[in-house]
Design goal:
The chain is mainly α and 177 residues long. Helices cover 45% and strands 10% of the residues. The protein has one domain. The protein has a two-stranded antiparallel ribbon with strand order 1-2. A hairpin with a 2-residue loop joins strand 1 and strand 2.
């Protein structure tokens, strides 16, 4: 009997899993953070096996299912490359070498924070300006991973300045992140 149930769950269509992920994004609250996101060293496949079936309250499960949609919409930046239009994806999971708990972040903001790590002597609020959860890859709440949360970050002044700095000819390389 258990085997039949597992086969039914395994045969669940991708569209129904995406629908579940969309529902969890709509029903989430700001405080909704899964306590078991796993370490940054855990692969997506290992995480899927550990959280089978997908958990609606787990932002990593939701991100795994909706990654392409999120990156294609607000999680990327379109820019001119000669006479063509290029697209750079900025929404990314925490790099493995940063260690710690899994989280999402912004490559542009992380590059800007790395270029300007010490703002000593600058008044309080401006000193923290570059040091955001997005720049540190610490976005873990399901509500922040919703398209609305990603769009809100993309529209912030910090993000727009990070994009501007990133596309300057002397910008920080992504390999340093």
């Amino acid at each position: 009997m258990k085997r039949v149930g597992l086969l039914r769950k395994a045969s669940q269509s991708r569209s129904s899993v995406e629908h579940m992920a969309q529902q969890s994004l709509q029903a989430c609250t700001k405080a909704s953070v899964c306590s078991d996101l796993g370490p940054v060293t855990e692969s997506d496949e290992e995480h899927r096996r550990r959280h089978h079936p997908m958990r609606k309250d787990c932002s990593r499960c939701v991100y795994i299912v909706l990654r392409s949609q999120l990156q294609a919409s607000y999680g990327s930046y379109q820019h001119a490359v000669g006479s063509r239009v290029g697209k750079t994806v900025w929404l990314a999971p925490r790099p493995t070498r940063m260690q710690g708990v899994w989280g999402l972040g912004c490559l542009f903001c992380a590059a800007r924070m790395q270029e300007r790590p010490n703002l000593e002597g600058v008044p309080g609020k401006r000193r923290r300006y570059n040091n955001t959860k997005w720049a540190r890859f610490e976005i873990r709440a399901v509500s922040q991973i919703a398209q609305r949360g990603i769009r809100q970050h993309a529209e912030t002044q910090q993000h727009r300045m990070a994009v501007r700095d990133f596309f300057k000819p002397d910008h920080c390389s992504l390999s340093k992140l």
